[in-house]
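Handout, section 4.2: multi-component inputs.
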Amino acid sequence: MSNTSNTPPRKPNKVNMPKFNLNWFYLFLALALGSLFLFNDSNMGAKSVAFSEFQKYVSNGYVNNIITYNDASVEAYIKPEHVKDVFAADSNEVGKNPLVLTEAPSTDSMDRFIKQETDNGHFNGKAEYKTKRNYIASFFWQLFPFALLIVFWIYMSRRLGGGTGSGGGGIFSVGKSRAQLYEKGANNSKITFKDVAGLAEAKQEVEEIVEFLKEPQKYTDLGGKIPKGALLVGPPGTGKTLLAKAVAGEADVPFFSLAGSDFVEMFVGVGASRVRDLFRQAKEKAPCIIFIDEIDAVGRSRAKAAAMGGNDERENTLNQLLTEMDGFGSNSGVIILAATNRVDVLDKALLRAGRFDRQIHVDLPDLNERKEVFFVHLRPIKIDETVDVDLLARQTPGFSGADIANVCNEAALIAARHGKKFVGKQDFLDAVDRIVGGLEKKTKITTEAERRSIAMHEAGHATISWLLEYANPLIKVTIVPRGQSLGAAWYLPEERQITTKEQMLDQMCATLGGRAAEELFLEHISTGAMNDLERITRQAYSMIAYYGMSEQLPNLCYYNNDEYSFTRPYSEKTAELIDQEVKKMINEQYERAKTILAEHKAGHNQLAQLLIDKEVIYSEDVEHIFGKRPWASRSEEIINNNNTLEAEKEASTSENSDASKENDAPKKDGETTETVA
Ligand code: ADP
Ligand code: ZN
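Output:
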């Protein structure tokens, strides 16, 4: 269980388009202000004159209306028949009601002047008094809401667009597909089957898709229909994305890549419009490949979602996806590849013929495949002659392709840190350990008592797994804290498709060995066993409720893969019975563990002391104490046959306890192998 791998970044950096610049906003403001002043000044047919000049116009009887402002500026309208006298121009040049502007000494003097001119009959128009508008202030007040809006808009577009790195489009592109496009002919990033190690069967299956894309008429001429989609099923990091890219690379067609979660957005309807947009773009580029990673983000069964109160948005997105897949003709040259780890949660409609009707299984690599993956990833690394790929492949059971890529990279980093010219064997081994268990934390302080407690616990596991026939043989035990765990034991589990009840019980007993040793030899139990207890509880429930392995409830399987259903397929009474049986089973195994440990107390304590002294012990040390396992030949055989190395960790906190949650779901393949066998 090497869940600690860091998934390498999958997506190349997107090319960022220039973002909306705040400078544009300032420029816009300046322009607006400037034009306002210009407009003000170029008041058509207005003429600024001295006050004395203005008085003359009034005395001559040219003036029609006068507006006096509080700041003693004056606007006067000239009578149409006198326009010529004032402006020396025609009225159609200066407008119908031309203005004369002037500054009076004060409003009072203006008032007196108007009175006087009215009295002597020179002025008979209207005299008004007004408060002057402050153009600039009022302009800002009018602009303020707009400015607010603009600022808000910029903020929103940054949030929406910028957050996901999709660049310039901002808010206007929420409905656009987020797909990453790898154009054909971009040779520098072209991935071919050469880059994909192992996965022989999967490659063979997709080979056909490459053929479809290259020569569609070969198939359509015979009346065959080109498949629309294929589903790559397998655990993360096994190279599903890589395989899809290789298909595009081999067929030399454009490749659209996006994750299922890219469709999902906080706005209603966005997902659906993104799907539409994606297919529109794809059709333009046909023939091409669309790759949707983690399709379960949108493709979860609708019925199940509805039971949860439903997520209309996701449902709409899924419906749109189904519609689009139906909508394009099978010879349009667009092929959809999707990846998921969990086919069982996908909506059945997605798996129907004409949609993702092909499933290609991409599994964790076996020994030989791991060797191939190592060869691929060792290519760019400078290694010295000590590196033995065989050994590395053997040391990395259960690793995915991504984990191995990670090991190679990590080894190079470790070597560089030590100032080496080449990467050596030890660097790789350190890298493997680091990826399995997280970084060694020699500095993490454990007290003498804690170390003793951890050593007792680990020795308990080691002792029992050594003494029980079906328990996984131990390879290495350590009490060096790593990452979240305080101690760890590595076992070599047998690869098997069918597990017997005895094997499961022995395993359970060995897992309980840690807690049992604490209780027997330390007289107080600790939190260190939480991870163990969680695992065996889950195991016991699945044995009883799913595999029908208990005496009270034989041959009954209550497995229900509908994760949203809250109704149990059994009665309250049965639920109680299951609980009872689980308790009984665990108690039995716990007692068994204690009996074995009590019997082998001397050996156990010796082992624990050895652990305290050496920190790391290997199977040889255990063999030294307890003698050869009678079943040793079997484990030798296993080593030669490639298997899964399992690191069992003790959680020091509860945080890492969900890492292995998914693993214990009842093995579906148990059934299939049975029918084949
Ligand atoms: P998935 O999509 O299945 O989660 P990826 O295809 O993204 O996994 O794999 C991540 C990385 O792991 C790849 O970029 C590649 O470097 C490495 N990798 C995984 N499987 C293989 C393989 N079979 N051969 C070579 N490299 C692999
Ligand atoms: Zn334990």
